[in-house]
Amino acid sequence: MTLFEVWAPRARRVRIEVDGDVHAMAGDERGWWRAELAAGDGARYGYLLDDDPAVLPDPRSARQPDGVHGRSALHTLDPGKWTDGGWTGRQLAGSVLYELHIGTFTPEGTLDAAVERLDHLVDLGVTTVELMPVNAFNGVHNWGYDGVLWYAVHEAYGGPDALQRFVNACHAKGLAVALDVVYNHLGPSGNYLPRFGPYLSEGRNTWGQSLNLDGPQSDTVRRFVIDNALRWFEEFHIDALRLDAVHALVDHRAVHLLEQLAIETRTLAAHLGRPLTLIAESDLNDPRLITPRAGGGYGLDAQWNDDVHHAVHAAVSGERQGYYADFGSLRCLADTLRRGYFHAGTYSSFRGRVHGRPLNTAVVPGSSLLAYTCDHDQIGNRALGDRPAAYLTEGQLAIKAALVLLSPYTPMLFMGEEWGARTPFLFFTSHPEPELAAAVGEGRKAEFAEHGWPAADIPDPQDPATFQRSKLDWREPIERSSLLDCYRTLLRLRRAHPDVTDPWLPRVAVDYDEERRWIIVHRNRIHLLCNLADEPVTLPQIGEILAAWGEVTVTPTGTALPAHSFAVLESVSGRAELAL
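Above: the chain's sequence. Below: its structure in token form.
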């Protein structure tokens, strides 16, 4: 017998259809409806609310074989197919993450196909694979942030059993698995939750209605979110969750949803005997997210740090449009490498107000901030989805890599950046509803028209070619091996030298020359020298060359670097006196 239960406080009557047969359900005063029926794995079922003949999928459906509008299927992972019994987990500090999108990582676009590329990641020096959302969404391909059935794994990727195989394979190769999850909104198609109960509030954010996290009957909604997060950890053996855009979670309770999630995650980690990591995406520059609960924070383990990306990208590329306006100077880059946030109670011209709050670097280590040269947003939200390799020299790409991979932060790569992939990563959707498809395409064109882009130049998200163009070309790593070798070397250095993995920001020192466009990042005895200029320059630091891009010469008084190059030096006594 199988117990079916669903929360539907708005319904006067709830019935369940199982394999074509309809059965009554009994409700209680809290809005839960239950029925115990004979049904086995694979049984198709759905709920009928009041007198509506429409059969709706289970909000907590474990599998959706026919898509998000179809009936749910009973599914339980086979415990006998787990092969990672010896896996003890991986802490965040010292890790190197690699963000990828399952649908475009390989030609096949499946979890099983991605397994065949894991050796590349191990050889590169990655320790954690971060998957963009795999929850069930409408259509065949999508970034994944339009999910509507959060407990199910997208069928086109292989479904839940394929995710189990993927995690097994990663753990067998010593790779942890992080999963991107979205709790700030639901997608525009297939969201039946409001039919069941008050899952959504009256408020809205950039992507749609906000979740009801602090209003009447929000206790069950919060449980829906937290249970989902814990399910990935416990049932799928996931090691870390990346929490999408937590600044859009509106919660005015005394104990914020994120703090409650941190508490329950720590409790589960103690039971499972392996570290479980929570990583937030936030644009607030609010250190409370990653400050320990004992220090008055929420107790999350880490957050993405866009300020590092902006500081590195603007300094190297020269771009100053939009939110890059305040970035680009070497002073900005130096400050961001030393203190975590650039906007830390300072004026943001892009926002037109003071933004952020200083990070207590004596309490919060740099490893609690993720740094990256690019990510899915920083590429995909450009009008043409063009990667940095499309407009920067290989030397500039190498400089960006060195600044991030040798920083005191936890580095993250975006798929293909390690060889300077030329394939774009575009915004793509596959909504089957014509009206929704047209609205998404027109909205995309209107967004970029405001910035001067002709509508005809903006790729149509609904065009299958837009999705196909975004797939990695695995012939490129062979053709573009120099940059790939550079990434491998930098990650080897990171593993080999404790000075590089040292996460404490007060120990980072930076020298720079704004006019001559060079910067030196001192990590005790390890020194990263970068020449961002278009002409050679001699920097006032000497030492043994551990790695370099370009022909580098060390003299008794300094180190000569060609244009767009870097060198990593090891000195005997640490930071040298400037020989200016």
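Residues 98 and 413 are 5 Å apart (CA to CA).
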